[in-house]
Each structure stands twice: as C-alpha cells, then as structure tokens.
Amino acid sequence: MLLRIASASLWNRRLTVLLTAFSIAVSVFIMLGVDHLKNELKTSFGRTVSGVDLIVGARTGSTNLLLYSVFRIGNPSNNLSWQTYQALSQSKEVAWAVPISLGDSHKGYRVLGTTPDYFEHFKYGSRQALVFNQGQAFHTTQQVVLGSEVAAKLHYHLGDELVISHGTGEVSFTHHDAYPFKVVGILEPTGTPVDQTVHVNLASIELIHSSGSHAGHDHPQVQSSTPASSNHEHTDDHDHDHDHDHAEEGAGHHLQPGSVTAMLVGLKSRIGTLTFQRKVNEYKAEPLLAIIPGVALAELWQMMGMVEKALALIALLVLLASLLGMTTMLLASMREREREIAVLRAIGAHASFVLLLIELEAILIALVGAAAGYLGLAGLLALLKGWISSEYGLFINSLPLSGSTLGYLGLIVGLAAVLALVPAILSYRTALSRGLSVRV
C-alpha cells in the first residue's frame, strides 16, 4: 500500500518529479562516464606497447621519451647516433632492435621512419602483433604503410601516392614533392598511436632530406651500411636508362642515417633488463636513457592522477547538487501537502508511516534517475563506440553492470535517502490540527 500511495503522489506531481529525476540522471551519467572513461583510458594506455623490453633514446625525462617515441607527442631534445644504435643492437644481450625516426608529417599525421622489422617485433595489448588489413610491409624507399585511421580519414587505398612534409604541424611550408611515396600496406585498427602513423623505410627519411639539399635532386653521397640488395646493378651508364624515381629507389638501399630518434629493444632474457638498462644509462660515447615501457606508463598515469581526482570530484559535486535539488523540491512541496498528510494522519496513519512515505518517494526518484543515467550512458557508448574508435583511436568497451557500478548506484540511492530525512522529519512533526484547519 505504501508503494502505491507513493507512486500516486509522485504521479500527481509528475512534472517536477521528472525534472528532478532528469537532473539526477545527468549527474549519474557524468559520474559513471568519468569513472568508466578513466578505467578505459588507463587500459588503453597500458595496451599501447608490449613485447618491448626497453626504449632507448637521448637522455631526457622518461615520460618525455615515452611520449614522443610511443604516443607521438612532443619532440625529442636530441637524437641517438647511428653508430651508437649499431653498437647497442649488436650487444650480446639484445635479441632484436628496431630504430625509429620522427620529425616529418603528412597532413597532420606523424611519419615514422623504421625498418620492416618494426612490423614483426612491435606488439600492443596482450602481445598482439600488427596485422595488415590490406597489402604488406614496405621493401623499398618509395613505399609507405598507413595506420588504419590515416587511410580512413584521408581516403587512401593501395597504389595511391602521397607526399610527406617537413615538420610535425598540420600546416607545413616544406613538402618533399620530388619524392612521392606509394601506399603498399594498410594496417588493421589497434586502438594505439599506430593507427595515426605513416610508416616509411628508414632510408627514405635520409634520402629525402639529403636529396633536398642537392641541386637537381642528385643522389646524395652517403655511407653504405649494408651491401645493395637491389636486383639491378646501377652503373653510371646504366643509370641513364632508368627514370629518376627508380634510380632513387636503388640509391636508397645504400643509405644509412646519421642519427635516429630512438630504438626499441627486445632482450634475449628479461632477467637482464635492469643490467642492460644500467649499461645504456652509463654509456660513455653519448648521454643516453633507457626506459622500461611499463614503468614509464605507470609514472605517466601517476602524473595524471590529479586530473583524474579533479574530474571525479566535479562529478560528485554535480551529483550532490542534483540530490540537494531533489531535497529542495520535496521541502517546497511539503506546505502544499500539509492537508494530504493531515488526512492520512486523520484516517489512522501513524507519523512513522508519513516519514516512510517521504523517504520512499525520494528513493523512487533517485532510482529512476540513476537507472536512466546508467542506461543512457550504456546506450550512448554502444552507439558511439565505432565513432570514438575511428575519430580518436580509443577502444571504449561497453559499460558493464559491475560491482563498482552497482556500488555507485547504491551510494546515490543511499545519499537520496539521507537527504530526504529533512523533509520527512518535517512531515513527521506536522501538526494534525494545522493540516485540517481552514486557511483564510
């Protein structure tokens, strides 16, 4: 009977009740949204790179090295010399090493110079390998592999040509027009910065910058790091029978860079990670820094802890404001409901019955608002999950009805019940004679 009376009373005041429930739903939406996005971003950050034991770069802060080498955020303070890369990659502790070179872009997307080994050794998530949606890895200096977002946003397909630009801004005034690249591969979405990256051969980076400083785009005279692996022998006489692009492609096999931005290292045994890290940090030839990606990610997330707490506090304050609004609404309605309460008392209802009635009304409003907020957030995430993935490169899972979520919803209902005690106690003390007296 109590539930039926409470429902009828709320329906009688449905407009104000619905507005109050809506404000609670909005606050629940914000609070659960902040908490869920925090957890998903933390998971997304953690899955960005795996299977890499160390990242080595010029000496700087560990967070800075992680940001520019993995997340493509910021720029290095210095580079790592090619001689140092070769020396470290040939260390007995190293199973594999992949160089990366940053500094160029294509329409706002970072260009990463590396070797084909990158697609074999770079892992993300639970040691998931990079998978090609179309095509294959590059093998020459005029080929490019695109991340899924780059291909989707810029509408590139296999065989299309593109030109990269100097610098990392969205607008560049220096384009390497004389050296176009052909798309030979498009990667599957990973939910990591790989999706927003343009991958080219490391030799291409050296070639386009060296060529840019030579009149007529002659082949740069650089050192040979490995014997040429081209199927053609390019003698002086034979070069005249080939076009300019083919000649540069052959020349690219002889190129070695003067320096690289960083190197990803996989060790033969993880037991020696700290030992090799110390060896790199104490390297005599030049100042270096080696970081363990997982440790650096934990430090990065710890730095973001203040932002996380601030967002959670804002969400809680919004919720409290909504619940206080509900309390105000109940208080405002008490004077109008004096006669209703007095009639209930006159027909035999105990004062505690009236107190429970007000409490139940508040709990019902909070339940409706909390359920609406949860369902609204869950539905929106399910609807926009694909769009968020393609727009921002973030894989946000659906909102689970977990113990944590139920705890939040229980907290909301509990707070509503506590705050509703104020109008409930006032109704408990409402005199019967005052409610039934004739008002002049």
In short:
The protein has 440 residues and is α+β, with helices and mostly antiparallel strands. It is built from 17 helices and 15 strands.
Binned, the helix content reads 40-55%
Q: What is the number of helices?
A: 17
Tell me the total number of β-strands: 15
- Unreliable sequence segments: 212-253
Q: Can you tell me about this structure?
A:
The protein has 440 residues and is α+β, with helices and mostly antiparallel strands. The chain folds into 2 domains: 177 residues, no CATH class; 238 residues, no CATH class. Helices cover 52% and strands 15% of the residues. It contains 17 helices and 15 strands. Strands 1, 3, 4, 7, 8, 9, 10, 11, 12, 14 and 15 form an 11-stranded mixed β-sheet that branches. It has a two-stranded antiparallel sheet with strand order 2-13. A two-stranded antiparallel sheet has the order 5-6. Helix 1 packs across helix 14 and helix 12 runs parallel beside helix 16. It is elongated and about 95 Å long. The two termini are 34 Å apart. 34% of the residues are buried. About 10% of the residues have low confidence. It comes from Bowmanella pacifica. Pfam families: FtsX (PF02687), MacB_PCD (PF12704). This is Peptide ABC transporter permease. Its main location: membrane. Keywords: Cell membrane, Membrane, Transmembrane, Transmembrane helix.
Topology at a glance:
Layout: H1 2-12, H2 14-46, E1 54-58, H3 62-69, E2 80-81, H4 82-89, E3 94-106, E4 109-114, H5 117-121, E5 123-124, E6 128-129, E7 132-135, E8 143-146, H6 148-154, E9 161-162, E10 165-166, E11 181-187, E12 197-201, H7 202-212, H8 236-239, H9 244-252, E13 259-260, E14 262-267, H10 273-281, E15 288-291, H11 293-303, H12 305-336, H13 338-346, H14 351-392, H15 403-419, H16 421-428, H17 432-436
Parallel strand pairs: 4-12, 8-11
Antiparallel strand pairs: 1-14, 1-15, 2-13, 3-4, 3-10, 3-14, 5-6, 7-11, 8-12, 9-11
Helix pairs in contact: 1-14, 2-12, 2-14, 12-14, 12-15, 12-16, 14-15, 14-16
